[in-house]
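## retry 2 of 3
previous attempt timed out at serialization; input unchanged, resubmitting
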Amino acid sequence: MSESQALPNDEEISWFWEEMEADVRATLSPEQRIAIEKAMAKSADESRPADLRLYLGKYFIRIIAGKERRNKKRLRQDLKKNPVFAKRNLPVAILFWTLWVFSVLYVLAFISTLVESFLFK
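## retry succeeded, writing output
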């Protein structure tokens, strides 16, 4: 029985089996493999977060938005491993802050123009 017999066309499951070490994979019974694939399919079927990917030449920006489903222990581990205010995040934070400031200024200027055109006509 092949590793992907339960769900033959799922790329995530194929990737999973390819990444698993062959000696570990060989220890699994066909029933265990099917149970693993069913569990993976169930988690894949659950609603996924919005995933926006912007490719800018050799760089990219990825924004993922959705309901947080990780438990508190895992969240703490993730924040410790990947702090928001790390040096590697500084260029992106500066870029987003700058874009936000200019966007706010643009909206305020637009509102000001509207107010002037209606009130001081």
